[in-house]
Design a protein that fits this description.
There is one protein chain. The chain is α/β, with parallel strands linked by helices. The protein folds into three domains: about 110 residues, Conserved hypothetical protein from pyrococcus furiosus pfu- 392566-001, ParB domain, CATH 3.90.1530; about 100 residues, Arc Repressor Mutant, subunit A (Orthogonal Bundle), CATH 1.10.10; about 55 residues, no CATH class. It has 13 helices and seven strands. A five-stranded mixed beta sheet has the order 1-5-3-4-2. A two-stranded antiparallel ribbon has the order 6-7. It starts with 9 loop residues before the first helix and ends with a helix.
Length: about 280
């Protein structure tokens, strides 16, 4: 069966904040203890100041907009509305208004990612991880993600590339110490050591993105073959995407002039055996 277009019917499942709910929608009062959070929630950092504002609003007016959930064996699983659920729990509310939707696993997981990307203000690293989940968990191409989210393919590719930076730099991006623009400029640096040094210098001196780009250009040898190098680099990115879809996990290619290496990530012994099975199935 052909997979439906991602995002189709999203507005029907997750109405705009301003929209009035149809009288045909049944709103239930569900105990907050029976609702578990979505394991595919891409948001990691929740702004405490904004959460406090929401808590104050709910304390005064109650939960105006119901959360969206689906039934599971242990109770309910959240589709959308984690900030409202957190605020309700912080206030000690026993119940929260909720609309129950009959949603399959794959649709629920896709929609929860889209809802967070389109409606919420994810930081660039959270977006990058969300895009990566589309590839590793749902076997999507970058083109398909771009079409589903009405974004340019280059935007998807460049955002995912932020995950190639050292974890400490990713943390600085998440906290807002540097922007995605700074980070994208640093991706041109040849080593992680160079990237870390430039990152520290950016934060210490408060460099703009343009100043960072100039600094990176001064540290890298820019030749007349730069356009050809960029084209080659995109080829490597495409190969990584193809291998990620094949193995169902993150794959990185480190390509040099004469040699390189391929890094395939796995997260358990079972996951390793699954990947080995894929490799063995491709043997002639």
């Amino acid at each position: 069966m052909e997979k439906r277009a991602l995002g189709k019917g999203l507005s029907a499942l997750i109405p705009p904040k301003e929209a009035e709910y149809s009288t045909q929608e049944t709103i239930l009062q569900i105990p907050t203890t029976q609702i578990k959070t979505n394991r595919y929630q891409p948001r990691v950092a929740f702004n405490q100041e904004k959460l406090n504002e929401l808590i104050g609003s709910i304390k005064e007016k109650g939960v105006v907009q119901p959360v969206l959930v689906r039934r599971v064996e242990t109770g309910y699983e959240l589709i959308a509305g984690e900030r409202r659920l957190r605020a309700a729990k912080a206030l000690g509310l026993d119940n929260v208004p909720a609309i129950v939707k009959n949603v399959a696993d794959v649709d629920m997981l896709e929609l929860s990612l889209i809802e967070n990307i389109q409606r919420e203000e994810l930081n660039p690293i959270e977006e990058a991880h969300a895009f990566q989940k589309f590839i590793t968990d749902f076997n999507f191409t970058q083109d398909k993600i771009a079409k589903a989210l009405s974004k340019d393919r280059s935007t998807i590719a460049n955002t995912i590339r932020l995950l190639d930076l050292p974890k400490k730099i990713q943390d600085h991006i998440s906290k807002g110490d540097i922007t995605a623009g700074h980070a994208k400029a640093m991706l041109a640096l040849p080593t992680e050591t160079d990237q870390m040094r430039v990152c520290a210098f950016i934060i210490k001196k408060g460099l703009s993105v343009r100043e960072t780009e100039n600094l990176v250009s001064a540290k890298t040898s820019v030749t007349k073959k730069r356009a050809g190098f960029q084209q080659k680099e995109q080829t490597i990115v495409d190969l990584e995407t193809e291998l990620q879809q094949l193995f169902g996990t993150r794959v990185r290619i480190f390509h040099g002039k004469k040699r390189g290496r391929i890094q395939i990530e796995y997260y358990s012994n079972e996951d390793l055996n699954r990947i080995l099975g894929v490799i063995q199935s491709k043997r002639p």
